[in-house]
Fold each of these.
Amino acid sequence: MRGAHPRVVLGLHRSRHERRLLTGALDLGVTSIDTSTNYLGFRSHTVLARTVGDLLPRLTVSTKVGYFPGPERAEHSLEPVRLYEAVEQAARDLGREPDLVFLHNPEHSLRDTGGPGREALAQGCAALDDAASKGLCGAWGLSSWDPSPLVDLVDPTTPRPSVLMTRAGLLVGVRTLDAVDALIAAWGLASGSVWGMSPFGGSMADPVWDRVDPRTFLRNGDGFSRTQAVFRAAYCLPQVGTLAVGTDDPAHLAELLDALAAEADGRMIHQYRALLRERPSGQPV
């Protein structure tokens, strides 16, 4: 067994939730998993309890609330009572209190900036803060796919999350990177309290990885694969202390863990952010 890898969390967004994946992750030293109430068709928590319930005490479990089943499709809500009850339900379905609960993509309910949006965000955060204070979860955080709409809604009265999670990696645009930096500053978060997700921007099968060699962003990157380079560089765009990454293959997870031995080239990362800023769209090529 390898030593623990606290900087890597196994994400279950597209996972089949198979037992062999969780046992394989534990064998590799990965002891944290990240899921959500709406994953696996709103069945993630109950499936985990059924298939790996005996392993859950050995794992640090984070989950998310904010999406709810609707008559035709999932709906999003920041209504405090619904969020609080969702945390309660998550604990019941998992058979244990989650270690961390994220407010999931609050921007989906915040179409407008200003007073109403600021109040809705604050109330949603307060609901999770209340749930954590009452022992329904170990701590709470905020997970946002597009944090830009949140920047103008955070003020000194907004409850402070323990963790901020957002997209990370070479395919993240400068608008998102700047928004993350602004939220980190507004909440006074340390880098260890910031998580990244979706480091591959969807898939390594994206044609962009045939045009760009991501090993450019590593010092002495010749000994690593392109996949490993993309993963390692994601810790720097934005600066995060933990990455949540999804896979159904323990061998792929092992390859990513080996990438932690690589050293990112800070100068190249800085130049890359500068180039993004110069592009009219602010987006990668």
Amino acid sequence: MILTEGKTKHIDCLKQMLPIRDALDVISGKWKILILTSIMQGNKRFKEIETSIPKINPKVLSKELKDMEEHQLIKRIVYDDHPVLIEYTATEYSHSLKKVMMELHAWGVNHRKKLFGK
């Protein structure tokens, strides 16, 4: 980030922080990125997503899926079969987060090495 000097420093800092806060509001928490990763890897049904993410509670998964749908990261598709079939897919918009997700992965790998030597 570009840091500025003088009277505009505070204003410029806020201009840099607001979009970051907005982004973190959308992807915050320990589950959203993991859920999106699971869906991008081909898990489309609720149970598949739940099974792919260790220790996620079904109630939490349901809430996070709804939130991600509101933010247009995923699409919920209802097939009117018997029984009703529901699938989740990543939207084109969510793919704009791939670079961020890859950077978080790389940072996490390095962080684990630094802390645990793994």
Amino acid sequence: MTPFISRLRQRLVLAALVALLAPLAHAQEPRDLQSPGFDYYEIGDLDAPRPGPRAPAMMLMGGGEWVPEAFQWWLRQAGNGRVVILRASGGDDLQERLYEDIGGTTAVQTLVFDSRRAANDPAVLRVVAAADAIFIAGGDQSRYIRFWKGTALNRALNAHVGAGKPIAGTSAGLAILGGYAYGALDGGSVTSAGAMADPMGSAVTMDSGFLQMPYLQRVVTDTHFDRRDRLGRLIVFVARAAQDSGDPEMVGIGVDEDTALCVEPDGQARVRSLDGEGKVWVVRPGRDADQLVAGEPLRFDAVPVTVVASGGHLNLQDFHADTDYEATANVVDGDIEVTRL
């Protein structure tokens, strides 16, 4: 055999091998995936079989420290399969923590967005579509709204939940899960005092028509609740959502730091907290605010507030709860007074 024929045969064999492996290469999920608009990280075994069946579930986290018990429950709902973390800042630290410290997942992938372009990238959409559970990290919710709303990723997130797969959000990631959301679109974070002083002002930036979460379409969520004194601003958010939607039955749910509200498929939810002290706060005015006028402070009397302690239950279908206590909040000229019942 001449050297030419030998080299030709080698090339033909190599070409045949490449042709044989090409479909398998395309079938594999991308490693070290990078593209303009996002960064990608992964940990674990992406080729591992998914261990168990999935069930719809939501984990609504108020920010601060994670609650391992809540995460373990959530991962069981995901069949202890693969988690995708979505962020608009930061790096791979959360996936390291989830995979190594919490455990109970075959792999964790992280997508960090820095533009709207990435939310229509086919590679991003393939990663999201393959997730057993999606975790939306904290940060700046205005970036999530600006980068994702109305994109293919927006549709993919709604399809993920519609397919009965778990989702979770903490801090900014929780803020966007309600049917109406405080978007922080002015670049700041309004305080309770600022919101009550001018509920129709430019600092109260409400958003809707983004994510379609079960049981949350008439809900505004808020986070870091008790520590940052956010009852007043949640009342404003609910009043604004009621006015914008024409629905006086809008509800506000505030979640404390180091606390998670774990929602089962039937809407029954349990409060879990790191130290047993965290609470969930439910605001149900049941009517429009008495006064929502631009440049004028809020006036809103006898707003019912239900406080659910750690270990307690809340039904998101009718908002009946195992209460720690009931209270009423009166807002007069931008000042709030809470009376326990």
Amino acid sequence: MTKDEGSIPDEEWERFLRDAGAGTQDAPKEPSARARMVTRRLREEPGPPEGWRTYRPARRRRGMTWYAVGLFVAVALLVVSLMPGRVAGWFGGGDGGNTPLAAESERPDHPPATEAAVQRPTLEEPFRGSPAARWGDGMAAVHLPEARATGWMSEEEVARALGRSRDFLAASALDAGVLRGERPVKAIALLNPHQKDVQDYLSAAFREPGRENDPLLLFSRFAKTEVRLVGDVVKTQGRITYREGERGAVEVTADVTYVYPVVRAAAGSDEVARTIVRRETVMSWDDPEKVVIEPGTFSLTSYKVDTTNGGCSASTGYFTPAFGTDRTASGSGPEVDPYDRSTSMDAHMREAGDTECGTASRS
């Protein structure tokens, strides 16, 4: 690692070289992405377009007697009387499913309800027929915890770190220019420039994207010549948490699902598809006395991504959602609900299996 004359004071640099050469225990260390995950799960629903767009007809059941029907109705009425709020939640709320959901302060205990009717997205209502219709807009829907003194940081410094972590999410997954395929300059500026493995990844990802160096692991990008977003709203659900990490660092974890409605770039296109991306990013706000880092930046500890309808072919550095008959391409592996946030990211990806292009239950 070479010295950066414009950013690290001479005294600090000389102390680092002296301590590192002497093998001192307290010598600042150059961080690495210790648990970087580069596995993607790109899933599309097999079958005809109607099924891919969330509608899955219920199986017809025969042989049900009138006695059984009466018993079922009685039990249902009892449940409604005892738990009216919970029952309303199963069907999207008592106002037709339009009640906005609060930000996710903790992991939900069940997946969102399946829509009761076929509701295809339109240009006017791109989230129609999706649980995301009740989610919040952008970063306003991502829960940010209360700051408290942690590790080497004071309460005020933790609050600043949480705010900058949120800024990174916005700059990497919501910025209008980045979504159109531009380089995520603001997001990259928040990454520790001395973290060599991450800088190598970034360099390769935008020069020659591939499976191991895919910019979509961290950033949401669409090729503007192929697709365009519908409107300027991205629906989100997720939360940010933090704890004390290694060497007293403040380790911030963001687990967020983003829903992007898109149409083909051609003029007059009106078929709306959705790309659903769930990312877990772990950011380490390191103590500069123990880690070589620039002020206002963080080191990446790990990053994982799970994508539905983002493309199943070789990586191009852009999401490539499918439309029309292209949606009939069969996936493989077990069926997974991309809106289910009741399991951890690790469990969610294990459920999806090891297939490169799995199967989503809805879009």
